[in-house]
Amino acid sequence: MPHVLVFDSGIGGTSVLSHLKCAMPMVQYTYVMDNELLPYGLQSQETIKSRLTALLNWIERSTKQVDVIVIACNTASTYALETARQHTNIPIVGVVPAIKPAAETTLKKHIGLLATPATSKNTYTANLISTFASECQVDIYHSTTLVNIAEHYYWHNEMQAELLQTELQRLNICNELDRLVLGCTHFPIIKNHLQNYFSHKVELVDSGAAIARRVQHLLKNKLDQSGNVEARLVHWYATASDKIEQAAGVKSLKLVS
Would residue 184 show up in a list of annotated catalytic residues for this protein? Predict the structure, then answer.
């Protein structure tokens, strides 16, 4: 049975995991969250590179047969994807802001990027914008508060409506744009609540479905051989499992370079 490992700083990567499971229910999944350093949007590039290298070391030490690694974090992908690929032969799929599809579908030639500060301000993201959205006006907004709101919503099934309202008012997203890229995998978790906030028509764009298609392509041969057996169990690991409430079955993991 093919095995995909999904990695994020917290539960944001579950928004990608849901697309993967829908497209490939017959795959075994492991989900690893580095919540000890949540959110990655506040971490340095060198710190994130070190954590990804430590993750690869853990995979090697644990003798896990991993077929594909998904770095389900925009910040980690834009900061350290190439570094991680230099340390393993396992195919790695990263998640980067969906600037290209937003630019290709906008009718107003006016799009926005909503991401963490580390993602919205780095060179990789700037290159995405210059390469794929040079003919568009691109407004950039950054927030780590939305990451915390999404984490709370996931674990407690409770929306902090007042805090969300305050943060969206602070962001003051322009009502002229018609595409808003969700450049953090945490944000699709609260996508419906974000959509309800906007009084004008804006399409929220993320990379989840595209990532699932990419992984499906990489696993094509193994999927053809695996049959139709559905793997329901996801193995969960966290670097600070004591901080997670209602997290039965989450095992502790130390990332050491």
Answer: yes
SS3 of 175, please? coil
Whether the CB-CB separation of 203 and 105 falls below 8 Å is answered with yes
- pTM above the 0.85 mark? yes
DSSP type of residue 249: T
> What's the pLDDT tens digit per position in 74-110?
999 999 999 999 999 999 999 999 999 999 999 999 9
187 close to 164: Cβ distance less than 8 angstroms: no
Say which amino acid occupies 88.
T
Do 93 and 71 contact (CB within 8 A), yes or no? Answer: yes
Q: Single out the catalytic residue among 22, 73, 136, 174.
A: 73
22 catalytic residue (yes or no): no
Contact 40, 48 (CB under 8 A): yes
Backbone angles phi and psi of 67, in degrees to 5: -90, -35
